[in-house]
Amino acid sequence: MAFLQEKLLLFCLVICSSLLSLVSSRGSVYQPPNVERLTDRFPRMPITRGMATLFGASNIHLKSNGSYVDIVLDKNSGSGLISKNRYYHGFFSAAIKLPKGFTSGVVLAFYMSNADVFPNNHDEVDFELLGHAKRRQWVLQTNMYGNGSVKTGREEKVYLWFDPTEEFHQYTILWNTHHIVFLVDNIPVREVINNQAISSVYPSKPMSLYATIWDASDWATDGGKYPVNYKYAPFVASLGELKIEGCMTQNISSPTTAECSKNATLSSSNTVEGANYARLSKQQMVGLSWVRRKHMFYSYCNDTKRYKTLPAECSAH
């Protein structure tokens, strides 16, 4: 009997040690709250239909008849995709699986921008997934620029509540006249409300959608302390389940409402400018609060060392 008790105690110690190792290497693991699945409201689009090669063509590998794609960073090049159309507001989503292993200095970006057209006053809405060193996990950074406000970074950083290298997870940008919402697996991780305090730098011009993987050794991991180690290359990220719903426009300066209604992917009753997308639901607010309480570890609005005077939107209600 004593022998069995000793075996049971040893087994419990091994399990507890494994759990502690998991928590210490990836942070506390929490069960996310239930939220509406916005991604279920929009149809999937093949990568080949929605996106084109931006750079690093030899490191872009289509899969599943163009429904999925691997984008690769190696010692020769990174790689990236750009949407075939420009959009004025919309719903933009992709399922992404990140590279495994030692990924310091590696950045996977899923974002919108018009810097190619407006180099001096561009808009940008960013998901940036920052690689890690040693046993630390990937970091999710969000950012936003409007009208060239690049000197005022609006970064926020969170730890993910899952391992993003094990399977695909959905990363979504909702952008309309009311707000910009960043969602991960349909859970809002950040909301930027278009109010008077931020209106002058709120993205207001049509943008392209991008997905890129590249070497950001100079800043990405602990401020550039850990550069990319190409001994662990190639770094392969996989994307699929692309969903794009927005106003396709060639009118770069000021697309009209009529033009947007005509070119919307879905019927006007489903447009992301509608009441269903004007504000977060109660469930989504709970999800947003959960992320910010348990997983966010940096916000520019709390960075008094960087800003002697915080941006106006930080104190707006």
Automatic annotation (TrEMBL):
Keyword match Transferase: yes
Function: Catalyzes xyloglucan endohydrolysis (XEH) and/or endotransglycosylation (XET). Cleaves and religates xyloglucan polymers, an essential constituent of the primary cell wall, and thereby participates in cell wall construction of growing tissues.
InterPro entries per the UniProt record, alphabetical: Beta-glucanase-like, Beta-glucanase/XTH, ConA-like_dom_sf, XET_C, XTH
Signal peptide span: 1-25
Active-site residues, as the UniProt record annotates them: 124 (nucleophile), 128 (proton donor)
Subcellular location: Secreted, Cell wall; Secreted, Extracellular space, Apoplast
Family: Belongs to the glycosyl hydrolase 16 family.
GO molecular function, one term: hydrolase activity, hydrolyzing O-glycosyl compounds
GO biological process: cell wall biogenesis; cell wall organization; xyloglucan metabolic process
Broad class of enzyme this protein falls into: transferase
Enzyme Commission identifier(s): 2.4.1.207
PROSITE patterns cross-referenced by the UniProt entry: GH16_2
Record protein name field: Xyloglucan endotransglucosylase/hydrolase
